[in-house]
Design a protein that fits this description.
The complex is a heterohexamer, with two copies of chain A, two copies of chain B, one copy of chain C and one copy of chain D. Helices cover 86% and strands 0% of the residues of chain A. Chain A contains ten helices and no strands. Chain A starts with a helix and ends with a helix. Chain D has a domain of 37 residues. The longest helix of chain D has 56 residues. In chain D, 15% of the residues are buried. Classes of the chains: A mainly alpha, B alpha/beta, C mainly alpha, D mainly alpha. The structure holds protoporphyrin IX containing FE (HEM), adenosine-5'-triphosphate (2 copies) and magnesium ion (2 copies). One magnesium ion (MG) binds next to helix 1 of chain B.
């Protein structure tokens, strides 16, 4: 357990040291969402309608950006080998890395989303649902993403290949996440969507570290 | 005690070696030699379990290391070609985090002592990125002092080190052996450590 | 280990599977051709004109088999992949890689024929209907599998990594399907559901024969491809060098 | 028979583009795939044969050398 | 000149060797555009309205993904040092790398965009304008992106920092590019937007290699 | 002829060396020595122009290399700590692309000859990633044969090489010097090349 905390602490420390890293996933999120009004035009009704979808797609892309680096640096400098050789089970350490990734790329989005939602003229209730959906959805993204990151590890064309592998798997999170907000706006109640999201999260929390560990071992052979 | 039975290694379609048998007991060390590409690194990676052998078995005190798992890795320290140091972190942080990964915390005091022993005084807080090739290597080697492991497996530990550091490291390995440790090393140079057997690949 | 298992493992070795596959291929080609001839005859000369869609509905005779095969092949692929991970047999990975391109092709054909059906029936090449969207995602999953395997040049590693991806995918396919379906029906808009209640019996037979044709075709092509893969991967073994094809 | 003339058959009741566009692409794809697989198989066989010939040549050379050695 | 061609050839070869790389920028584009309907909902009228914006944002993100690797691999393994030490002027070599980047990540998008446009129900004229706009716009994205890639080189948090630097600079391309298609759909004629895009391209073709070279020299010091 | 006048190097707040003067003429070679972190790599990077000196000047045939630019770089071959080889490409491709970067094409024949000379026969087409540490190094060193440069600047060229390769490389450097070439090398080991001066940092 100590080792897991050490992994989380280390990843956070590294991110702080690279300074830019903490804030930039966030800025990417902000910039991508801000690009849409520029590309689509300023009509408020239209913007409000597409807001949940745009916010979720942006969140998805923002979490995906950091994925590639999740194991790559550790792989390149040999730390990953040391992790495999550590007495702590690899699955736990991987869990730590996933948690750190979420804290760096998921959590900030959850906290910032309401501000961006305001730009799209969402009301308070919808903002709450948006935050809750992101809170359930972003760990799911990190968990699924970790599998992709491990599978593409050491493959030089990895970054884009990773998105090819991971984005299709993100579809349910996107649909239920954006769906929750839309259902709330339409007055249908977001409960169903949110509980499905939670169920998916539980499923992924169970399987993803296992699959990631298996993929990492293969990458290191 | 580490013993190897009928070990073979295949990389790609190339058979690097086959039917290798040897054992290393307390206080013994093995010098793995061979030309470039002979399979020294591959052998070490097999020994620590980063690769699976094509044939044969590796046993620790008589038990297969595959089944032992963590109980084997706990006694093991492997330093490879790779730096395994984070360029953004300082030498001190690197050392402490490496220990934490093994599940034990390392006090500032002993970490600093280890770094000083390796001649990194005054560079403890500098990001490793700024260190010279040899200094980076020394950060890595400082783990020899901080991790209590019975079996050291070192891939070309003398690379990039200057004459003084080579002597220092040899002395360190000597102490480890005198304490009943074991070591398996590769190197293209002659090794200034008494005793030890050679394995020619 | 009992005798049956040994027997099974014997055929699971590339060496003995290679000639076996060679013997099976012509049979499957023959079956595919026979089913194809009957199916095409049924679909063009026996099945009557549809009351609503005129002759345009005849696309169904390739659309539905391609759609079915695209989904079925993914299941088979994942099964081989899982078998490979569990038993560590080399052949399983080769079968999985051999199936993927055919599956992707089937998914592509389903999309293509669907689009060519949609234009006359719905007036648009594409709608974001649940079934259609999940087929698109299935296509992406195939491409991801192929791209991943292509990016890894150690075949053993490629097999294992592909297997993990296929298994993760197979867990996800139903989730994706239902999520898309729900997404779509919640704010139902434009998608037109096809009136299929009054499907004539001859149409059903036609579809069935065409589906069998596609099925046999897929097996034949996959076997051909697995033979090529076996040769590529085992190029340095003695038994390959002693093959008649190689000697001549 | 439900068609009165070949022309009517090919016209497909006005849906020619769509019906033949679907069936045509399917036919092309299903015909191309085995051809491509066949090509792949032939390529690997070709290189295997070449390798074999190279091996044989090498063996001959070394055998000759051996014969000369022992002859001396 | 030979050396420039060698650089282009080498980068294309490397991409082929990593096999997946050529096709995946493309697939990223396809997948990202496909995500939007999933987030926003299947209404054709709404989708048609946001199509130019979505396609352009996706194109922008797809080109941006490959940017980081533009110089990173060459930097990490020391090839970049060798390029600086080569007798050929660095500016030319950099031009070659930018050209290769465009061929790998811009050109395929131009060719595929019409198919995706069909999914959003755009008509033939709009598809033509879309292609033309992308043909002018994607080289611009590669040129601007190269500056960002050079500036963030060797900074470990580079990937996300890069997007932070580059995305704001992409805004004009986005506005004129998406604007051209929207203007055409609205029946206003796309000429003005397109010629502005062309002017930007000329400007960037002139300055960007120079700025990139300067940034690279700084990164190597 | 390369001559250095009053060269100083500052990294961070550390002054590594100052007021360095030396010259290397045709047929001469210089062995830069010093402990880890003394500034050997920094000196070489200054010489090739990858870093700017804090003080002092570097001249090639009497002219400052900053003003000479390409005319200096044409005569220069620098091999550093880094591999400068692409892991996905084969040894052959790496060598040819490196030449093309310098503006001259390299025929398959001469590239293969260079690789065989460095004992890479049978590995020409394998992606470099699969090569051993020493073999990777050899791919890099093959450039010594294929690029016609007057001044060789090599940072620890003997790292990771086995005994045979070390002899081979020493012979190669010897030939280069006999042809009127110049060389500046760093190494922690004694160098088996006759002649040459030492510079202690
Ligand atoms: C790109 C567009 C399309 C795609 C990707 C697509 C995909 C599929 C798939 C995956 C299936 C099998 C699913 C199942 O059996 O539940 C299917 C079946 C079917 N499709 Fe499509 N389709 C498309 C367009 C169309 C159009 C335009 C029509 C007719 C107007 C159509 C009519 C049918 C029919 C009748 C079936 C079989 C019915 C059944 O077995 O449930 N499809 N399609
Ligand atoms: N896929 C492959 N196909 C063929 N040969 C391979 C493949 N992968 C690795 N090899 C070979 O396996 C050997 C690996 O050697 P290894 O790294 O163990 O050598 P080493 O003894 O550590 O050498 P060095 O002294 O250079 O570090 C190399 O000769 C390499 O060419
Ligand atoms: N920013 C900085 N602050 C303080 N010291 C620095 C900084 N950057 C580099 N240094 C020091 O400068 C020196 C660089 O040494 P250099 O790499 O030239 O050594 P070297 O002689 O090549 O050593 P080695 O034999 O280990 O390769 C190191 O001692 C390093 O600690
Ligand atoms: Mg080695
Ligand atoms: Mg150095």
């Amino acid at each position: 357990m100590n080792a897991v905390l050490a992994v989380i602490r280390r990843d956070l420390l590294l991110a702080m040291r690279r300074k830019s890293e903490v804030l930039t996933a966030l800025f990417f999120f902000v910039i991508v969402t801000s690009l849409f009004p520029l590309g689509i035009g300023p009509e408020p009704a239209l913007l409000k309608k597409i807001a949940p979808g745009v916010l979720w797609v942006a969140a998805l892309l923002a979490t995906m950006l950091g994925l590639q680096r999740m194991f790559a640096a550790d792989h390149a400098d040999g730390t990953l080998e040391q992790m495999v050789l550590s007495p702590t089970p690899l699955g736990l350490l991987v869990g730590g890395k996933i948690a750190a990734h979420w804290m760096l790329s998921g959590l900030p989005l959850v906290l910032l989303a309401p501000v961006l939602g305001l730009q799209f003229d969402l009301d308070v209730g919808a903002l709450g649902v948006l935050m809750l959906a992101l809170l359930l959805g972003t760990p799911l993204l990190s968990l699924i993403g970790a599998i992709g990151a491990a599978l593409t590890l050491g493959l030089r064309g990895g970054g884009v290949l990773l998105s090819l592998l991971v984005l299709p798997l993100y579809v349910p999170a996107l649909i239920f996440g954006a769906g929750a907000v839309e259902a709330h706006i339409a007055g249908l109640g977001a409960g169903g969507h949110l509980s499905l999201l939670a169920a998916l999260l539980a499923l992924a929390a169970f399987f993803a570290p296992w699959a990631t560990t298996a993929a990492l071992r293969i990458a290191l052979e | 005690m580490l013993s190897i039975h009928g070990l073979s290694c295949v990389r790609g379609e190339r058979r690097l070696f086959a039917g290798l048998d040897f054992a290393v007991g307390p206080g013994e060390w093995l010098h793995v030699r061979g030309e470039n590409g002979a399979g020294k690194t591959s052998l070490l990676r097999l020994l620590v379990g980063l690769m699976a052998p094509a044939e044969g078995e590796i046993r620790w005190n008589g038990e297969n290391v595959r089944t032992l798992g963590e109980d084997y890795r706990r006694h093991l320290l492997f330093l490879g070609h790779h730096g395994a140091v984070k360029e953004e972190l300082s030498a001190l942080e690197n050392l402490q985090l490496a220990s934490q990964l093994d599940g034990d915390a390392l006090a500032d005091r002993s970490a600093l002592a280890a770094l000083h022993r390796f001649g990194l005084k005054g560079r403890e807080e500098l990001p490793v990125r700024f260190l010279s090739a040899g200094q980076k290597r020394r950060v890595l080697l400082a783990r020899l002092v901080t991790k209590q492991a019975k079996l050291w497996i070192l891939d070309e530990p003398f690379t990039a080190l200057d004459v003084k550091a080579v002597d220092m490291l040899s002395a360190l390995i000597g102490e480890h052996l005198a304490d009943g440790g074991m070591a398996i090393l590769t190197s293209h140079q002659a090794m200034p450590i008494p005793g030890g057997r050679e394995l020619q690949l | 280990m009992n005798n049956k298992l040994i027997h099974w493992f014997k055929y699971a070795s590339p060496q003995s599977f290679y000639p076996l596959a060679g013997k099976m291929i012509p049979w499957f080609w023959g079956l595919a051709a026979a089913f194809g001839v009957v199916g095409l005859w049924l679909s063009f000369f026996v099945a009557p004109t549809d009351a609503q869609q005129g002759e345009g509905y005849r696309i169904i005779f390739v659309h539905v088999p391609a759609s079915w095969m695209s989904m079925f092949i993914y299941l088979v692929l994942a099964a081989w992949a899982g078998l490979g991970l569990a038993l560590n047999t080399r052949l399983s990975g080769m079968m999985a890689s051999a199936l993927a391109p055919t599956g992707a092709l089937m998914a592509f054909l389903a999309l293509w024929t669907g689009a060519f059906w949609g234009k006359p029936m719905w007036g648009t090449w594409w709608v974001w209907d649940a079934r259609i969207t999940s087929e698109l995602i299935l296509f992406f999953l195939y491409l991801g599998f192929i791209a991943l395997q292509a990016a890894i040049d150690d075949p053993r590693r490629a097999d294992k990594a592909g297997a993990i991806l296929a298994l993760v995918g197979v867990v996800n396919v139903p989730i994706i399907y239902f999520s898309v379906k729900w997404w779509n029906t919640l704010h139902q808009g434009s998608s037109v559901s096809v009136g299929k209640s009054s499907m004539a019996v001859t149409m059903l037979w036609g579809m069935l024969f065409m589906a069998l044709c596609f099925w046999m075709y897929s097996i034949a092509v996959a076997l051909m491809r697995v033979r090529a893969i076996i040769l590529e991967r085992e190029a340095h073994t003695e038994w390959v060098k002693e093959l008649n094809e190689v000697k001549s | 028979m439900i068609w009165n003339s070949p022309a009517e058959f090919f016209a497909m009741g006005g849906y020619a583009l769509y019906v033949w566009g679907s069936f045509g692409v399917c036919a092309i794809a299903l015909a191309m795939e085995p051809i491509l697989v066949r090509k792949r198989q032939n390529q690997i066989l070709q290189s295997l044969r070449r390798e074999r010939i190279a091996d044989e040549l090498e063996n001959e050379v070394s055998e000759k050398a051996h014969a000369r050695e022992s002859g001396r």
